[in-house]
Write a structure and sequence with these properties.
single chain, 107 residues, alpha+beta, 2 domains, four-stranded antiparallel beta sheet, 4 strands, 41% helix, elongated
Length: 107
């Protein structure tokens, strides 16, 4: 089953022993729910996420967010320079060049 996306969160659904289990992905907090009816999976996932956000607000803490799409990295200045020069050689921004390099590495 395709992950359910809601409010920037992703939920995975797994079937085990006649029960559907919903788990929120990409955060350290453990968010799980059970569901008996496949027609209720999306509503259950949304309720789980809404409840998590409200619980965090009630506890005075920020809900953990999966990914922001921005990444602050630190590197040796010489490596930074070499990367910037390589990006310029390819007529790319350093950001685009780094994204491409990461995509190559994870593939």
């Amino acid at each position: 089953m395709k992950p359910i996306t809601y409010k920037g969160y992703q939920a995975a659904v797994e079937y085990q022993d006649g029960t559907l289990f919903i788990r929120i992905l990409h955060i350290d907090d453990l968010l799980l729910a059970e569901c008996e009816d496949s027609r209720l999976v999306e509503a259950t996932a949304r309720a789980l996420i809404d409840d998590y956000i409200q619980t965090c607000i009630d506890e005075g803490r920020d809900p953990e967010r999966p990914f922001k799409g921005s990444l602050n990295i630190r590197m040796d200045p010489a490596l930074h320079r070499r990367a910037a020069m390589a990006a310029a050689d390819e007529d790319k921004s350093l950001n685009a060049w780094i994204c491409e390099a990461i995509a190559e590495k994870v593939d």
